[in-house]
Design a protein that fits this description.
With about 130 residues, this protein is of the alpha/beta class. It is about 15% helix and about 35% strand. It has 2 helices and 8 strands; from the N terminus they run E-H-E-E-E-E-H-E-E-E. The strands form 2 sheets. A 4-stranded mixed sheet has the order 1-4-3-2, with helices on one face. Helix 1 runs antiparallel to helix 2.
Amino acid sequence: MPALTTSLTPVQIKIAVQDPEAARTFYSNAFGLTESTIRHTDDADYAGYQFGDYGQPGFFLIFFLGPAAFDQPGRSTLGFTVPDLDAAHRQALSAGATEAVGINTPQGMPRNSAVTDPDGNWIWLYQG
């Protein structure tokens, strides 16, 4: 892999969903994600999914934004490395995902597949 040539580090993705509660249920059932309060202010608590610790390598946030969010993006694409691609693919489908790309091993890439969540966002799964 080429060495990084920037000091920028991606730290978050916001995923557009029609029903944030349904999205939380899907991502919990499909991938075992556990939501927590990411930010607390006097006015509100902001929930999301935190990977790692802030300021440390591997830190990353995922937020679900409903239709009322001022910065709701269009459909998103994200990817996860998983220890068992076959099991993760099956689990996502049983939780309500739709298969977009069957399990395959493309040249120059790890074994992978893709599914879409109930809102049409693409989720790539990579054998890791």
